[in-house]
Amino acid sequence: MHYRTREVEQVRPTSGYDCDVLVIGGGIVGLSTAYAITRAAPGTRVTVLEKEPGPARHQTGRNSGVIHSGIYYRPGSLKARFAVRGAAEMVKFCAEYGIPHAVTGKLIVATERAELPRLHALVQRGRENGIPVRELGTAQIAEYEPAVRGLAAIHVATTGTCDYVAVARQLADASGAEIRYGSQVLRVDRRPGLGVAVRTRSAEVIRGRVMVNCAGLHCDEIARATGDDPGMRIVPFRGEYYELARPELVRGLVYPVPDPAFPFLGVHLTRGIDGSVHLGPNAVPALAREGYGWGVIRPRELGATLAWPGSWHIARRHWRYGGGELRRSLSKAAFTAAVRRMLPEVTEDDLVPAPAGVRAQAVLPDGTLVDDFLIRETPRAVHVLNAPSPAATAALPIGREVARRALTALADDRVPSGAPSGGPPRVPSHGPAAPPHGPTGGPSGGPPDGP
Questions:
Q1: How many Å is the Cα radius of gyration of the chain?
Q2: How far is Cα 185 from Cα 191, in angstroms, rounded to an integer?
Q3: To pair with 17 at 20 to 30 A between CA atoms, which of 49, 90, 173, 353?
Q4: Burial of 302: CB neighbours in 10 Å, binned 0-12, 13-18, 19+
Q5: Helices vs strands, H then E, count in the chain
Q6: Cis peptide before 281 (omega within 30 of 0)
Q7: Are 179 and 169 within 8 A, CB to CB?
Q8: Minimal CA–CA distance to 32: which of 392, 378, 435?
Q9: How many CA atoms lie within 13 A of 281 on its CB side?
Q10: Global model pTM greater than 0.85
């Protein structure tokens, strides 16, 4: 969401609330949140604002479509718990609504002896996260992927792929929320005693009792516009892909052993639900928050990234890793070499350029790359400040968690001063969607006096 960063003007409501919960961002996390709210508390009025003309135009619609198993993530972390739970729920959701998906399984392949200890550590981590894995020797790799070569591998049966754009559309339709596309948020005025009002580029003012910030690549900007210090900044990393001209070389999903010092999984091979095979992504700094190519430069955004001390700490700490990623971005031969480590038959001619994506990576002032999902609450607001991969896989449980926090804030708002609160409705797991609510299906109450 782009908006001017100068101090927001005071938006003075002249009528009642337009909704109970105002969600900024129409990606899969924002739409899952709306879906979870209306299922947990039917009649709650939810409005979703999305600046693009349709849903899932950025991180959701520009990833490899993988339903991750959760094997990579620290046991007990939100990523581990939500990815394991979310993978099963995503498959169920896709099956229920007829959304294309496939559970293909995945190989994680070690091609050098130095990677074997990390591969074995992944086996242990997978078991701690409750994920069944099978360890494979060199000869057994061919049982799953005849064209793949490696010293050893592990097979993760629960990994798959799906159409996340179709999932996002279904969440929007099933939620019963009001979805306003083409609504770019320019200004936010949050008054803890009154609510939140936002002004869009089209000069609309929308007022809600509680705001949920699911703005992805712009979530830190929205937090600051609300008057909250997120304590981090989104540093965008572009992931570039190629499509394999000979898709028959790959049956399912093939990954390298990741570097635990960096949150990216390395160049991997993904057979999509349409039968195509994508190679990538790498990870290079983007020159804009929506910088899908080297030619997309937004000086204000680039300047803000360069002014953030964490960016320079990253550069000093990871310059060697970053240099390799940059080389693969600028050299097709280098990218091909990375693929050939696992798939030796591939040539440069087999790689056809495909659309890139941008990862919204939260970075702390000391250069720490936030490793887990990050959700923070402030008066009348819930901010989702770090939700890159595997957020699409984990979208349903993330949505329930954000919905729980938003409904708690909404319940606190509705309880008269001094009265006990029974808490918000419980947010259930995936099941039939609540019916859309009508125009009167929401809380009554007079308008705020105005910020």
A1: 22
A2: 17
A3: 173
A4: middle
A5: 11, 20
A6: yes
A7: no
A8: 392
A9: 24
A10: yes
| CB atoms inside a 10 Å sphere around CB 318 | 16
Percentage of residues of the chain with pLDDT beyond 70: 88
pLDDT of 216: 98
Sign of CA dihedral 36, 41, 43, 46: negative
The per-residue pLDDT for 318 is 85
Grouping H, G, I as helix, E, B as strand and the rest as coil, residue 384 is strand
Residue 356 in contact with residue 167, Cβ under 8 Å?
no
Burial class (CB in 10 A: 0-12, 13-18, 19+), 173: middle
What residue has token string 């993978």?
A: 87
Q: What is the pLDDT of residue 322?
A: 86
Which of 247, 270, 254, 274 has the alpha carbon at shortest distance from 100? 274
- Walk along the chain (451 residues) in steps of 10 and give the mean pLDDT of each run: 36 68 98 98 98 97 95 95 98 98 96 96 96 96 97 97 98 97 97 93 96 98 97 97 97 91 81 95 95 97 96 90 90 96 97 97 96 97 97 98 97 57 43 32 32 35
Task: Give the residue carrying structure tokens 């409750």.
Answer: 130
Cross-strand pairs, 47: 22, 178
Collapsed DSSP state (helix, strand, coil) of residue 279: strand
Helices (H), 318-357: 319-330, 332-340
**Which of 65, 84, 73, 85 is CA-nearest to residue 160?**
65
**What gap in Å lies between CA 158 and CA 256, rounded to an integer?**
17
Q: Which of 160, 183, 163, 150 has its CA nearest to residue 60?
A: 163
Query: In sequence order, what DSSP letters do the residues of 295-307 get, joined into one string?
Result: T---HHHHHHHHH
Tokens representing residue 391 in the block: 């957020």
Token pair for 143: 């049982």
CA–CA dist 284, 292 (Å, integer): 11
Provide the 8-state DSSP code for 340. H
Q: 416: which residues sit within 8 A by CB, 6+ positions away? A: none
How does strand 66-67 pair with strand 160-162?
A: antiparallel
Is the peptide bond preceding residue 390 cis, with omega within 30 degrees of 0?
yes
Distance CA(386)–CA(384), nearest Å, equals 6
